[in-house]
Structure formats: structure tokens, C-alpha cells
Amino acid sequence: MDKILDSIILDLEGKTKEEVLLNIAKFAKQEKLIKDEYPIYRKFLEREQLGTTAIGKGVALPEACWIAMSRPYAFILCRTKEPVDFNSLDGKPVRLILVALGGNKTDLTRLKPMVKLTRLLKNREFRNSFLNVKNTEDVYSLLNA
Rounded to an integer, what distance in angstroms lies between the CA atom of residue 126 and that of residue 32? Predict the structure, then answer.
């Protein structure tokens, strides 16, 4: 499964949803997935204005699509350093974030890997294990278990 995941951020910094989303955008630029962090950050904020991407149980699924990217799509799996209020429907703060980035609005090939990763995040055992991993190698082992 590690082939569908582009990057992992353990201990993502940020005390607010906005800080976390900006740090993810900066990371995507650092990883050369995008050229500029501000368009993706604005897309994140626009999406959050439509309604929270926090699906409950400490998980959020922010996305930024139709952005200039170095590839058709990318996924970044994040664990926040501290719980963050994402206005989740269940009222629980977020610690686990799966970010979906897409370059072409007509290319829906990103949906299949997104479904696989989302299923994992809905699994309590996986969530608990991911919260306790020490490094990215442990995450890839967990994904392939």
C-alpha cells in the first residue's frame, strides 16, 4: 500500500486548523508536489468553509483539487503533534489527517487510493497504532500489515 501514499508527516505542528493546513501546504511545497503553498492553502480554506472535513474519531480529510502540481494527484498522511479543533461533527479534536491533492478536476483516478486510505483511518486499531508509531518506517509497516 505504500505506493499510494506520497508523504508522511509525524508530529505536524499547529495549534489551529488554519496553522495545520498552512504547514501541510508548506510541506507539499518542500516535497516539490506544488510550486507555491498559498494557492493550496486557499483551496484548503475554501473547502473548510463549505463544511468541515473532519469525519469524526479524530480524523480529517482536507483536499485541494484543481491546483498546479508535479503529478496528477498525491496523498499526505499526517499525525498532529497535539489535538486540533477542526469543528468535527462528533466534537472530537483531530490528530490524524489524510490530505488529498489533485491537479486535474476530470481525473478521478485518485478516488480508488483515497477510498483505501480512508477505510484504514476508519479502523480503530489502525488509528490507535498510527498514533503511537515512532517513525515513517513503522507507518509503512503498519500500512502493509
Answer: 28
Q: Is the pTM of this model over 0.85?
A: yes
Model confidence pLDDT, tens digit, residues 89-115: 899 999 999 998 888 767 777 778 888
- With cut-offs at 50, 70 and 90, classify the pLDDT of residue 28: very high
Helix residue ranges, H only, 9-145 = 17-30, 37-50, 111-122, 124-132, 136-143
Distance CA 15, CA 5 (A): 25
Q: How far apart are CA 128 and CA 124, in angstroms?
A: 6
- Would residue 142 be called left, alpha or beta, if left means φ above 0 and alpha means ψ between -120 and 50 degrees? alpha
76 sits in which H/E element: strand 73-84
